[in-house]
Amino acid sequence: MASEPQGGLTEYISHHLKHLTPHSNPEGFWAVHIDSITVSLVLGVLFCLWFWMKARKATAGVPGRGQAFVEIVLEFVDGQVKDVFHGDRRVLGPLALTVFVWVFLMNAMDLLPVDLLPWITEKFGIGHFRAVPTADTSMTFAMSLTVLVLIIFYSFKAKGFSGYMNEMFTAPFGKHPLLWLPNFALNLVELLSKPVSLAMRLFGNMYAGELVFMLIAGLFSAGSWLLYGMGIVGYTVWGIFHILIISIQAFIFMVLTIVYISMAHEHH
Fold first, then answer.
1. Are 16 and 5 in contact (CB under 8 A)?
2. Do the beta carbons of residue 196 and residue 144 sit within 8 Å?
3. pLDDT tens digits, residue range 135-184?
4. What b/e string do you get for 3-28 counting C-beta neighbours within 10 Å, with b at 16 or more?
5. 107 is catalytic
6. What start-end ranges are recorded for coiled-coil regions in this protein (predicted)?
7. pTM summary value
8. Is 197 annotated in the active site?
C-alpha cells in the first residue's frame, strides 16, 4: 500500500525514483547507488546458494520438485546455447544460466509492493531504498559492458590479434587502404551498439514497468474508495502481465549475450 504522497502524485513518484547514495556522493554521473548494488549482490548470492544446494542434494532417482525445477531451467538454457553457439560451451553455458536467472530475479523485485522496501529502510533510518536494480541505467550498462569485454575477448581468442584487426579494418568493403577507416568506423559502431542496445532495452522496459506500478500505487492514497478499488484491480492485473515482461526481458538479455559472443567466433 502506498504511503501518503507529500506534494501530490508527482512528488511521490519523484521521491520513489531516487536512489540511495552516500552523503558525500550525491546523484550524478559518478553516483554510487547503494540500493542497486546491494539488491543485485544479495540476489546473486541467493541464486548461487540455491543452485549449489540443489546440486549437492541432486539424486539420480526420482527428483524432488526443487531439483526438477532446476533441471528444467538448466535444460532450457543449455538448449538455447546449443542452438546458437557451436563451440565449447563449458564457459558460455554457465554464463548464460547466470545471466538468465540473475536478471530474472532482479526484474522480479518489481513485483514487490512499491513502498515495502522504502518503508522498511526508512524505519531503520537508512533512507529511501529503490528495489529494482534493472531499472537503474548504471546496473544495466555495467552488465552490458561486461558482455562487451567478453565479445572482445572471444574475438581475439577465436581469430587472434592479427585476424581480428584485419576483420575490423577490411570488412565489409574490402582491403583497399582507402577503405580501412570507413571499415573500422562501421565495425566500431556495430561493436558499441551491442552493449547500448542490451542496456537500454532492459532498462527501458523495467523503468516503464516500475513507473506504472508507482502510478497505480498513487491511487491508494487518493482518499476515494473507488480509486482505492481501481488501484487494487490495476495492481493485480499489471502484476500478472508484468510477470511475462520480466521473464521475456531476462530471456532476451541471455539470448543476445549468447548471439553476440557466438558472432565473435565467426569470420566474415
1. no
2. yes
3. 999 999 999 999 999 999 999 988 999 999 999 999 888 888 899 999 99
4. bebeeebeebbeebeebbbeeeeeee
5. no
6. none
7. 0.89
8. yes
